[in-house]
């Protein structure tokens, strides 16, 4: 009897152990890898003028040979999101314990529905889907255009005209191709998505705004919170560009408003002619000139940028007339205007030099710091340095007595009405009033007011 009991206990133990081993084997058969997706961003680029909803799909892949479990799938915007998710035939905003067999995949459908008449929607509406697998979170981005607009997504532009009948949204890098021209007509509104850029590479950009219909360039977040938030997009970059013009443009809230790199060596015309324009509230530079481009700038305001208003690095050739160049940024090492004929490559330790030549007439260079004009030049026989300032108001603590500064007003407040809140008009008792040189003046100010023929004002505005 005892022998029989021993045999029964032994067999029972083997069954238990077998169950344990089988359970361990089952657990160890699960993949510790993570799923992958057919896309990382799902973009709904349908224009929602007549159609309020659309559906797209993507695949979730299990690249491993073993089964993988997705612990959680969650639409981050929840029930308030315009997106809806259908996973493996089930609709919802949150799913648990999804399994995918080895080397298999799972279709996921995403539907979006917007009120096509809701013009208060942002131009771009975003959400994301979170996938938690083996303790790690992965996100798939969802993007839909929220209003009727022209959408330019990482494209190369041939010769074309951008019309003003509806907004233009730039997503990614939109490039004007070599020897091609992009013309933007007056009244056009351009909105740039996060990290986006308008690149002009050996081509031409013509922004043809007018006083009554300026071209507006800013981010694509339309909520009031973003009205004065800088760094919302990269900016405009003219790279070895053919002669380009920007007239009556308002460029706000980017990282660098306009960057001009070098010039077209076959042309004697200015790389950029910038007139009657406002460049303000950028996270770095308002206007960045690099590697000896040429610039003509008249009746412009460059202000409230967090680093430099205008920075010329490794030389430039410029003519600036009747402008406000202002610095109310937070960077203590910056200035309204900085001019350098050199650049030291931090990697190779190579010093590059270029010509630095320019004239600034009837302009105000001012801000909150003691030195709002910085000049850094290295003398060398291979380069030219020729800088002239005529009838300007300049904030520079030491008051330069060099002969190249003629009729300069040093360190007097221009008495702007409210520069912190972007009002750069000045009071009647301002030293800007009537102290410009009439022989250097142009005919009209940025507001279209005629300038005095005998005693014009300094800067972009003429008091009437």
Task: Tell me what the structure shows.
It is a single chain. With 464 residues, this protein is mostly beta strands. Helices cover 6% and strands 44% of the residues. It contains one helix and 44 strands. The protein has an eleven-stranded parallel β-sheet with strand order 11-14-17-20-23-26-29-32-37-40-42, with no helix packed on it. A hairpin with a 2-residue loop joins strand 5 (83-87) and strand 6 (90-92). The chain is elongated, with a radius of gyration of 31 Å. Residues 1-28 and 47-51 have low confidence and may be disordered.
> Main sheet, how many strands, which sense, barrel?
11 strands, parallel
**Rg (C-alpha, Å):** 31 Å
User: What is the class of the largest domain in the CATH system?
Assistant: Mainly Beta
**Number of helices, where a helix is a run of at least 4 consecutive DSSP H or I residues:** 1
Number of domains: 2
Shape: elongated
**Range of helix content:** under 10%
CATH architecture type of the largest domain = 3 Solenoid
> What is the CATH third-level topology name of the largest domain?
Pectate Lyase C-like
Number of strands: 44
Distance between the termini: 121 Å
Spatial order of the strands forming the largest sheet: 11-14-17-20-23-26-29-32-37-40-42
**Mean pLDDT across every amino acid position:** 89
- Residue ranges: pLDDT <50 for 5 or more in a row? 1-28, 47-51
What fraction strand? 35-45%
Going by helix content, strand content and strand pairing, the class is: mainly beta
């Amino acid at each position: 009897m005892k022998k029989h009991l021993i045999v029964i206990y032994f067999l029972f133990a083997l069954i238990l152990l077998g169950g344990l081993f089988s359970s361990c084997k089952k657990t160890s058969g699960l993949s510790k890898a993570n799923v992958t997706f057919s896309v990382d961003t799902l973009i709904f680029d349908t224009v929602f003028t007549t159609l309020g909803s659309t559906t797209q799909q993507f695949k979730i892949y299990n690249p491993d040979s073993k089964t993988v479990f997705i612990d959680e799938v969650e639409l981050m915007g929840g029930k308030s999101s315009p997106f809806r998710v259908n996973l493996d035939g089930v609709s919802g905003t949150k799913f648990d314990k999804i399994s995918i067999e080895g080397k298999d995949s799972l279709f996921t459908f995403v539907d979006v529905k917007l009120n096509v008449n809701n013009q208060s929607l942002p131009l771009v509406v975003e959400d994301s889907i979170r996938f938690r697998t083996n303790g790690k979170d992965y996100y798939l981005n969802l993007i839909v255009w929220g209003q009727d607009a022209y959408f330019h997504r990482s494209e190369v532009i041939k010769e074309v005209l951008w019309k003003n009948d509806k907004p233009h949204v730039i997503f990614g890098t939109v490039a004007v191709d070599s020897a091609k021209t992009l013309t933007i007509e007056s009244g056009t509104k351009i909105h740039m998505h996060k990290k986006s850029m308008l690149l002009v590479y050996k081509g031409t950009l013509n922004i043809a705004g007018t006083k009554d219909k300026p071209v507006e360039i800013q981010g694509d977040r339309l909520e009031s919170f973003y009205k004065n938030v800088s760094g919302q997009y990269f900016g405009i970059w003219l790279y070895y560009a053919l002669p380009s013009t920007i007239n009556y443009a308002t460029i706000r809230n980017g990282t660098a408003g306009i960057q001009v790199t070098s010039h077209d060596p076959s042309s004697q015309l200015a790389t950029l002619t910038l007139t009657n324009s406002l460049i303000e509230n950028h996270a770095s530079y308002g206007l960045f000139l690099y590697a000896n481009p040429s610039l003509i700038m008249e009746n412009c305001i460059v202000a409230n940028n967090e680093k430099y208003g205008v920075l010329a690095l490794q030389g430039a050739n410029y003519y600036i007339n009747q402008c406000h160049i202002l610095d109310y940024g937070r960077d203590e090492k910056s200035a309204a205007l900085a001019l350098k004929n050199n650049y030291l490559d931090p990697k190779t330790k190579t010093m590059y030099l270029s010509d630095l030549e320019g004239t600034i007439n009837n302009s105000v260079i001012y801000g909150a710091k003691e030195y709002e004009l910085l000049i850094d030049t290295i003398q060398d026989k291979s380069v030219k340095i020729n800088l002239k300032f005529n009838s300007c108001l300049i904030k520079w603590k030491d008051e330069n007595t060099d002969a190249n500064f003629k009729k300069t007003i040093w360190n007097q407040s221009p008495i702007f009405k409210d520069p912190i809140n972007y009002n750069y008009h000045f009071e009647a008792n301002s030293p800007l009033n009537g102290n410009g040189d009439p022989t250097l003046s142009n005919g009209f100010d940025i507001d279209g007011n005629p300038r005095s023929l005998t005693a014009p004002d300094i800067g972009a505005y003429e008091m009437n």
